């Protein structure tokens, strides 16, 4: 049991595949994050409106609604950092081409350690700012750096 003296950040994991979702949850919790795990994209907006999350890991390969639409919709009421997880090059094109408000993206196949490292980096950037509206445009410019685009396509 950990004491509630320092509240660990809560990561909302949105992934329908049990193995992948469990892997992310395990690695995040090993890194001392708290997690919530949704297997359907439908619940994301409701979850964010009713429960606090410090970051969203949003897989784009989900049944139900388009993850990009969900990201755009949640930006209407939330500035929570969002990391997209995608396996398709055309989705990355759309991520880059549309101002949907994602803070970073990760390509499949990924290593869970890389995901945790990205989460840490984003929370470090977003964590120091005071509550209220963050400088999201700055965050996006920083997030979409060229190095990120070096995905391992197989
Ligand atoms: Ca999936």
Features:
154 residues, five-stranded parallel sheet, alpha/beta, 5 strands, Rossmann fold
Description:
The structure is a single chain. By secondary structure, this protein is an alpha/beta fold. It has a five-stranded parallel beta sheet with strand order 2-1-3-4-5, with helices on both faces. The model is unreliable at 128-150 (pLDDT under 50). It is 40% helix and 16% strand. The protein has a single domain (3-153), classed as Rossmann fold (3-Layer(aba) Sandwich). The protein is globular. Helix 1 links the parallel strand 1 and strand 2 (34-38). Bound molecules: calcium ion. Calcium ion (CA) is lined by residues 15-17, 59, 61-62. Residues 15-17, 59, 61-62 line the site of calcium ion.
Terminus-to-terminus distance:
41 Å
- How many helices does DSSP assign? 6
Strand content: 15-25%
The oligomeric state of the chains shown is single chain
Question: Tell me about the biggest sheet?
Answer: 5 strands, parallel
Note the run of SSEs as H and E: EHEHEHEHEHH
Shape: globular
- CATH class term: Alpha Beta
Number of domains: 1
What CATH calls the topology is Rossmann fold
Cα radius of gyration in angstroms:
15 Å
CATH-scheme architecture: 3-Layer(aba) Sandwich
